[in-house]
Write a structure and sequence with these properties.
Blueprint: H1 3-56, H2 58-64, H3 76-100, H4 103-142, H5 149-172, H6 178-218, H7 220-226
């Protein structure tokens, strides 16, 4: 192979490599710049939403109804602000992906954009269920007429949270099969029912043992004639 042909191929390859490298650096720089802009916008909008919640005293309102502690250590305003920031960042990622024309990033961004509304709906369902469960269980624990109030309250809260999870599962994880949760819940419920029935029967048996013995003693002759 002549030296000139080798030099020509090397020059073409080197120029192609440099061009691709510069194009990649430019695309990465655009991606970082747009994501930085998105983070700034998300931060500002998050502060605005947080200020709005502070002005309407949403946390005080939830606390007055005893459901401010229903979100497993998180706050309502904190969850809402985080979801807003997430949506803004994903939107800016989609903008950046559309500009730099990187297929995998573009597909990822638009899939995330289409998934976020379902995610928000699922989170709203779970949050509503947690608030309802916390409110109902607090009322049950405060009641003096319900036997085993604490245990019953926990069972009610678990039941509400579980049903909310079954409803929200197709939204949170579209590929998941909620029937698995339903069947597992039925198994657990059956086991609890059997355990409760046996416990109740044993308790009744021990509680009525003396009564039955006393009745049998008084009616010993009648029972003997019957048999």
């Amino acid at each position: 192979m002549p030296f000139e042909l080798v030099l020509e191929k090397f020059t073409v390859g080197a120029s192609g490599f440099v061009g691709n490298l510069l194009e990649g650096i430019a695309a990465f720089s655009i991606l970082v710049l747009i994501l930085a802009l998105g983070w700034a916008v998300a931060h500002v909008l998050g502060k605005v939403l947080k200020e709005f919640f502070d002005r309407i005293r949403i946390e005080k309102f939830l606390e007055s109804h005893g459901v401010h502690d229903a979100f497993l250590g998180f706050t309502f305003s904190g969850i809402a602000v985080s979801l807003l920031k997430l949506y803004v960042m994903v939107a800016f990622l989609a903008i950046a992906a559309d500009i730099i024309k990187v297929g995998i990033v573009t597909n990822l961004a638009f899939q995330a954009i289409s998934y976020l509304p379902m995610l928000f709906q699922g989170i709203v369902i779970i949050m509503a269920a947690l608030m309802a469960g916390d409110y109902i269980t607090d009322r049950i624990k405060e009641s003096k007429r319900i036997p085993f109030a604490n245990t019953f309250a926990i069972l009610v809260e678990v039941f509400i949270a579980y049903n909310a999870l079954v409803i929200a599962m197709p939204l949170l994880l579209p590929a998941a099969d909620p029937s698995l949760l339903i069947w597992s819940f039925l198994v657990v419920l059956s086991a609890l029912a059997i355990a409760f029935g046996l416990g109740f029967a044993i308790a009744i048996g021990f509680g009525l043992k003396d009564v039955v013995a006393e009745i049998a003693k008084k009616n010993k002759e009648k029972i003997a004639k019957f048999f």
